[in-house]
Amino acid sequence: MPDLPRGMKPRQVHVIDAIWHLNESNGQDVGTARVGDVSAFLGVTTPSVTKLVNEMSTLGLVTKHPGREDRRAVTLTLTERGLDIRRRYVQEYHEHLGRLLGGLTEDQCRTTAATIAETLRLMQEDER
């Protein structure tokens, strides 16, 4: 995967992908994704997403649209640059992984998935 453009953080790619998924059903031109939706989608705090979205707006990756009745109720859309970042760093990456891992057998995939799930369970248990 190529390096991120100067000034971009990996977390911002996750926010871009979340906005894309949240806006997918209405088309990318109609912003229905809100900061709270993005934070819930990613399982992170709203203030952290607010900070990232503000940075991303400055970088020309997202557009913030104030609500008609409540101007604080901002919806988000991706700019052409944001859509290009998603294509390069999410879509093409997943396609590459698909080609790379396409040689695994179904048994190998099941074993790997079970190992990852058990590792996650153990790590979550350790946090308690």
TrEMBL record:
Instruction: Identify one Pfam family in the record.
Output: MarR_2
The protein, known as: MarR family transcriptional regulator
Listed under GO biological process in this entry are: response to stress
* Origin species: Bifidobacterium simiarum
Q: Which PROSITE patterns match?
A: HTH_MARR_2 (PS50995)
Question: Which terms in the Gene Ontology molecular function aspect does this entry carry?
Answer: DNA-binding transcription factor activity; transition metal ion binding
Record SUPFAM superfamilies = Winged helix' DNA-binding domain
Q: Which InterPro entries match?
A: HTH_MarR-typ (IPR000835), Iron_dep_repressor (IPR022689), MarR/SlyA-like (IPR039422), WH-like_DNA-bd_sf (IPR036388), WH_DNA-bd_sf (IPR036390)
Question: HTH marR-type domain: from which residue to which, for each copy?
Answer: 1-125
